[in-house]
Amino acid sequence: MGSQILPQVPAAKNVLSVLRYIASQAGPVGAAAIARDMDLPRSTTYHLLTALIDDGFVVHLPEERKYALGVTAHELGTGYSRQVPLQRLARFPLAQLVERTKRTAHLAVMHGREVIYVIEERAKRQSALVTNPGVRLPAHLTASGRAMLAAMSADQLAALYPGPEAFATRYESGVQSVPALNELLARIRERGFSWEQDEVTDGFSSLAVAVLDRTGLAVASVTLTVANRPPLTPAAAARNAAEGVVQERTVHLEELATLWLPEVTRCATEISRRLRPSG
Q1: Which end of the chain is less packed: N or C, by CB atoms within 10 Å?
Q2: pLDDT per position as a tens digit, 166-212
Q3: What is the pLDDT of residues 237-253, one digit of tens each?
Q4: Triad 33, 119, 132: Cα angle to 5°
Q5: Maximum Cα interatomic distance, the chain, rounded to a whole number of Å
Q6: In order of start, what are the domains of the chain with their CATH numbers?
Q7: How far apart are the C-alpha atoms of 59 and 259, rounded to whole Å?
Q8: Spatial distance between the Cα atoms of 234 and 272, rounded to a whole number of angstroms
């Protein structure tokens, strides 16, 4: 038995050394730097990184061509912070979402009964929103939070929302009881996305889809925020001005979902893929 284990020790030490090296860096690091500083052959470095990626200890950041700590490192209690690599992995897909839709998008994570917005990619010429990075809002009142709540088990939801006291916020809109929340989350699960209209920012609606890690846990959500009333063409604006018309047509949820949900889902799916070891 000892003869079977001992030959693996040098390789195991190299894996741990590479993992420790990545953990000690201020940010993601390239394979060339790892090979140089660890005095390892380039081919060996890539083999070790592949093994670490397969088990989730390390994630590859394709746009940066660098490597960072992965989710498994956090699960082992190494002090890994999930948000930093999550933000790095999500930023490019989120920017692509905004480029395709010309609408503002956010990435949010759960913290207790609140959501924290960690990325905002603001579309050009779209009004500023209250959901800037670092802002916290009650999860049950936002599309971002509802997407993640809908992915939770009944026991998890009961722990977060044991009774009416859990809904005591300064906000009066939205669901305000456990039965109402459960009913809303059931509708969200059925439709595959969450939403809110005029509940966070008057005149704007949001659609959100959860980001799932390799275990199926909702670790974040992607949200796209759009105006409830579509911009008028110059001709229509001139006609309304001449006729004294100020009311614009309101876009309903079904129309918003038809227009934007495929893109939101595409973005959330891509971030989820990047969180998995095979990514």
Answers
A1: N
A2: 887 776 667 888 999 999 999 999 999 999 988 877 778 899 999 99
A3: 566 666 665 545 455 77
A4: 145
A5: 90
A6: 2-75 (1.10.10.10), 83-275 (3.30.450.40)
A7: 33
A8: 40
